[in-house]
Amino acid sequence: MRLRKIPGIEKKLESYPNIVILNPSLYKNNWHNYFGNSHPIHLELGMGRGKFITALAAKYPDINFIGMEYKPELILKAVQRMTISRRNAVFLLGNANNIPDIVAPREISRIYLNFSDPWPKKRHAKRRLTSRGFLERYKQILAPGAEIHLKTDNRDFFQFSLNEFANCGFYLKNISLDLHKDNFLENITTEYEERFLESTPIFRCVAVHPGNDRAHK
User: Is 178 among the catalytic positions?
Assistant: First the structure.
């Protein structure tokens, strides 16, 4: 469903300074100071309406969570659904293309990619958030041994992602071809995921950063 444009939306978002950051590049290499602690930082790219990232923040208070979304209308919906402002969660208006300008090397301990746009046409493969270009960007910000957690309902995108992870030196674990049938106990669902719990298999994997220092040069 297409989002309705909201006039003056950035002004509306400015009224939530403790939850929303509109100029995240200002905090590069300073995210731990922003959160006021040295806890691990987990990043969700394409957080949508924020159900997943806010549930994680409530469950794990000793982890800092950043939700990034490039559509301001979705960020506003995420803010409006929050019943409690959490000090360990923040929403960024930004694009994954610019992630090295927003986060410094080794600042991130985990990335979540939940139901990213599969861009099914071959000519659009470079736009997929698991394509080589994006994975090389992630290597710049991930700490050695950090993980990328991927969920999707698109089999072709999942197969593409597994190949790209392997080709970029990540090693894979916890691969599931039907997450809900596997009864993965730690799974926190997204809004999109809940619509298809009974009808569509969910593919999941974890890709582990190889810890090669050359990725940070």
Answer: no
